[in-house]
Design brief:
Layout (H helix, E strand, L loop, with lengths): L1 H16 L8 E5 L3 H12 L3 E7 L2 E4 L6 H11 L9 E3 L11 E4 L18 E3 L8 H9 L3 E3 L1 H4 L2 H10 L4 H26 L3 H11 L1
Parallel strand pairs: 1-2, 1-5, 5-6, 6-7
Antiparallel strand pairs: 2-3, 3-4
Helix pairs in contact: 1-2, 1-6, 1-7, 6-7, 7-8
């Protein structure tokens, strides 16, 4: 769950940057595997409302909210989120255009293509998966005023976790470092975006190269 925990902290930092309160946030998650499940778990535990989740079989949507524990149980027992009874079933590609404050791509690469740019209704995208869109698509979404936390920042929790394990440290130390590094790096990248009107990925790469 370390990657999903990191995605949660990237999401929290992005919300703060956008002056949004976690308890009033709605969010959608593409992919309900290791990353998506834990991101959804931590966000719902802190008061955010999960309105849509997709997996390879389709998307389940309920604008009033999805019960995370029940959804997790359904996924474990039946193998798919579409068997969750408290929502509407849509195609898995429909997750892109769901009406939610935040979208978390957490499974497949190249989820959002050039042709999908105008479909996105989220104000924040936190990239839990690797390369959920090309840099060109990120730029187009950023020009629409959408706040994006790039994958190299948002989903680094697993890498940090591996480093902590390699150093022989504890799980507690791992969670502490994931929270600290991802929160501060997300803040730094989004501040760079605000200050220089650069794309989030350009800012992330610039900070990395400078360091």
């Amino acid at each position: 769950g370390s990657t999903g925990f990191g995605v949660f902290h990237a999401a929290k930092a992005a919300m703060k940057h956008c002056s949004m309160d976690i308890e009033n946030i709605t969010f959608a998650v593409e992919g309900f595997g290791n990353v998506g499940t834990f991101a959804a778990k931590f966000l719902t535990e802190h008061g955010a409302t999960l309105v849509a989740v997709s997996d390879s079989k389709g998307t389940v949507y309920n604008e009033k909210g999805i019960d995370f524990k029940e959804l997790n149980s359904v996924k474990e027992k039946t193998g798919s989120v579409v068997n969750y009874k408290g929502g509407k079933t849509l195609s898995n590609k429909d997750i892109i255009g769901i009406k939610a404050d935040m979208l978390i791509p957490a499974a497949v690469p190249n989820l959002i293509g050039i042709g999908d740019v105008d479909k996105v209704r989220a104000k924040i995208i936190v990239e839990g998966s690797n390369i959920p869109m090309t840099p060109e698509v990120e730029d187009l979404l950023a020009k629409r005023g959408i706040t994006i936390v790039p994958d190299i920042v948002a989903n680094a929790g697993g890498v940090i976790s591996s480093y902590i394990e390699y150093m022989g440290k504890t799980e507690k130390e791992m969670f502490k470092m994931v929270e600290k590094k991802i929160s501060s790096n997300t803040k730094a990248v989004l501040q760079c975006v605000s200050d220089h009107s650069e794309s989030p990925r350009h800012c992330a790469m610039k900070i990395a190269k400078d360091r």
